Amino acid sequence: MEGIQDVNISINDSCSNLYDHRHKAQVLIPLLYSIVFIVGFSGNTLALHVIRLNLKKLNSTTLYSINLVVSDILFTLVLPLRIFYYASGFHWPLGEVLCKVTGLIFYINTYAGVNFMTCLSVDRFIAVVLPLRFSRFRRIRNVKYICIAAWLLVLAQTLPLLSMPMTNLEPGDYITCMEYPNFEKVENLPFMLIGAVFLGFGIPVVTIIVCYSVLFWKVHSHARMRNMKDKSGRSKKAIGIICCVTLVFLVCFSPYHINIFQYMIRKILYTPTCEELQAFQVSLHVTVCLMNLNSCLDPFIYFFACKGYKKKILRIMRMQVSTSMSSAVRTLPDSGSRDIAEGTKIHLNSIRSDH
């Protein structure tokens, strides 16, 4: 094992093309992250404001959403530092400690998102499929304990990063931060990352697929009965939440974890070449960008999960439409008056010319 580890480190050190794409990335990645920052921060701040106004109506779904909102806002607050890093051409002059802090928050947001989306899916599954048998898991007191357990699991998944090197001085005299080659010196890294993929992604995604499949079957097989008994639209709410969660997993989390998994399998079977490592490094930047989109897509989950958020968004949209229509209506009399004035002027001029 030590021999394989030494070969991996020597190959990593000899690869000089790992960041050849940084001149393109320093334009594209900051642009994408700026959009993520604006949309994610505004959408999640609005969600937090609406939830705060409706704390008296706190339920299990809202409580899970609060934790998801807090995680996303925390992530967006450190995103400007990542934008600065990529805009500087993968150069991090802010030191190892701050690099570890931003890296830790990044992975906390990732796995907090995974855990609480899974909790939301199971919560909707219980609400529709097993509302009586497992209703105790939806009581606020028990949900608080579940949220604490979810955060403890997130910390167990992410805190080991603090013991790993996160920065590295590259041959071009620039310092990289939170890049995969910086972790290659960690012993048994492939096995650690494969375990992290199973725990942080595999188990949650299987849970969500099972919940979605059973819930979908339940809703459609008992559609008439559900329409009569479920006047509150609980089934539609559940379908909306799980569809959004599934979309976030497919678009954001799946590419990154599948990418990590396949490369770690290759590292166990043989020693990848420089070209393979460079291709993996580029694909990581693409899949990490996709994963960070989750803070933009999470507000769509709140749209279905939180009634207050949905009403607030619809009210804002109606205000925008009514404001636009009012502006259009106000301009009509002005243009109409000008037309009448011009017509009158032409008519008077024609009379004068006749005389």
Architecture of the largest domain, according to CATH?
Up-down Bundle
**Uncertain stretches of 5 or more adjacent residues:** 1-10, 334-348, 350-355
End-to-end CA span: 110 Å
Corresponding CATH superfamily of the largest domain: Rhodopsin 7-helix transmembrane proteins
From the 3D structure, determine the CATH topology of the largest domain: Rhopdopsin 7-helix transmembrane proteins
Helix content: over 70%
- Please summarize the sheet with the most strands: 2 strands, antiparallel
Instruction: Note the beta-strand portion.
Output: under 5%
How are the strands of the biggest sheet laid out side by side? 1-2
The topology string of helices and strands comes to: HHHHHEEHHHHHH
Q: Per the principal axes of the C-alpha atoms, what is the gross shape? A: globular
* Helix-strand category: mainly alpha
User: What count of structural domains?
Assistant: 2
Output the number of helix runs.
11
Membrane topology: Multi-pass membrane protein
GO molecular function, one term: oxysterol binding
Pfam family, one: 7tm_1
Transmembrane segments: 27-51, 63-85, 105-130, 142-162, 191-217, 238-258
Per-chain topology:
Layout: H1 2-14, H2 22-53, H3 60-87, H4 96-129, H5 140-158, E1 167-169, E2 175-177, H6 189-221, H7 223-229, H8 234-269, H9 274-292, H10 294-305, H11 307-354
Antiparallel strand pairs: 1-2
